[in-house]
């Protein structure tokens, strides 16, 4: 068997590893070396790079992730299988169970029980994205906008909150911000996603809704047209544009762009192109 064949069949790197950094402490004759050991949860990616995330004091992966080249990883990181089995895996499993319980309570509108479970999860990992989103939505469902605002402030600083795996929660939280009259927060929230270069028709749709409620028709149209440029078959955005046209909300300098997009939408429907409705977290304007 060749080395290439062997490497193709090997198990991907996944688990807990440690790295060491030597630091100088003190000055002059009191200078001494100190070895700082850091534990990481590591997972090999499709491009063979290794994604590493530090463990927090509660032994769960938390905080920003970074990519490390495989060759560098193999020479600078050491496996810690016993730590994974004895501490990290049990802690991660219990954390996931706590968040799952909270989500069940929230789905059944048992908001105070959900709040307790989400807070328990956040004591273990204050940056847990699912727990932060869930707690924020819980507060918004209860109309506690002051508490929700503090969660909003935390979420906009978490890059992980805008990753694809959290898309449903991301959209649900943004919609709830707008429904609770927190329009500035909703706009800032969606703009934060765009800073991370997220190109998503549902994001643009929801941003258009927020700007419409802020009575900024031109910005609303800007993002609505962007949504339809990305996906002319998006039913919710198509209905939104038709509604705006029917209410005579289209400014004169947007008429040509709007008419062209309406023709594109009409052609999509004539050609039988599949349409996407609100399944991905955007609302259809009634």
What can you tell me about this protein's structure?
Strand 2 and strand 3 (50-54) form a beta hairpin. The chain is elongated. Helices cover 56% and strands 12% of the residues. Strands 4-3-2-1-5 form a five-stranded antiparallel beta sheet. The longest helix is centred in the N-terminal third of the chain and has 27 residues, at 81-107. It has helices at residues 3-9, 70-76, 81-107, 111-124, 129-141, 145-155, 167-179, 183-195, 201-213, 217-230, 235-246, 255-270; strands spanning 14-25, 32-44, 50-54, 66-68, 78-79. The chain has three domains: 11-79, no CATH class; 81-193, Tetratricopeptide repeat domain (Serine Threonine Protein Phosphatase 5, Tetratricopeptide repeat, Alpha Horseshoe); 199-274, Alpha Horseshoe (Serine Threonine Protein Phosphatase 5, Tetratricopeptide repeat). It has 286 residues and is an alpha+beta fold. It is built from twelve helices and five strands. The model is unreliable at 1-7 (pLDDT under 50).
CATH architecture type of the largest domain:
Alpha Horseshoe
Question: What is the fold-level CATH name, i.e. the topology of the largest domain?
Answer: Serine Threonine Protein Phosphatase 5, Tetratricopeptide repeat
Note the overall shape.
elongated
Oligomer: single chain
Query: Could you name the CATH class of the largest domain?
Result: Mainly Alpha
- Could you tell me the radius of gyration in angstroms? 24 Å
Give, in order, the helices and strands: HEEEEHEHHHHHHHHHH
| Biggest pleated sheet | 5 strands, antiparallel
User: Strand portion, in percent?
Assistant: 5-15%
């Amino acid at each position: 068997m060749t080395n290439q064949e062997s490497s193709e069949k090997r198990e991907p790197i996944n688990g807990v590893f440690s790295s060491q950094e030597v630091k100088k402490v003190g000055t002059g004759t009191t200078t001494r070396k100190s070895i700082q050991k850091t534990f990481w949860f590591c997972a090999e990616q499709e491009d063979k790079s290794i994604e590493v995330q530090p463990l927090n004091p509660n032994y769960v992966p938390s905080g920003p992730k970074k990519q490390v080249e495989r060759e560098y990883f193999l020479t600078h990181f050491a496996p810690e299988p016993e730590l994974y089995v004895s501490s990290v895996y049990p802690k991660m499993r219990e954390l996931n169970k706590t968040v799952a319980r909270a989500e069940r309570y929230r789905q059944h509108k048992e908001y105070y029980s959900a709040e307790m479970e989400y807070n328990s999860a956040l004591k273990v990992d204050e940056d847990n994205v699912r727990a932060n989103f869930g707690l924020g939505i819980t507060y918004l469902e209860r109309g506690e906008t002051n508490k929700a605002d503090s969660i909003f402030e935390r979420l906009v600083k978490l890059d992980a909150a805008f990753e694809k795996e959290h898309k449903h929660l991301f959209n649900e939280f943004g919609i709830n911000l707008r429904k609770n009259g927190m329009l500035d927060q909703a706009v800032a929230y969606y703009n934060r996603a765009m800073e991370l270069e997220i190109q998503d028709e549902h994001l643009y749709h929801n941003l258009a809704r927020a700007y419409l409620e802020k009575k900024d028709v031109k910005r609303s149209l800007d993002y609505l047209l962007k949504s339809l440029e990305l996906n002319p078959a998006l039913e919710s955005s198509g209905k939104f544009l038709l509604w705006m046209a029917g209410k005579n909300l289209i400014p004169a300098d947007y008429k040509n762009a709007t008419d062209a997009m309406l023709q594109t939408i009409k052609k999509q429907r004539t050609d039988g192109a599949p349409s996407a409705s609100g399944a991905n977290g955007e609302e259809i304007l009634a």
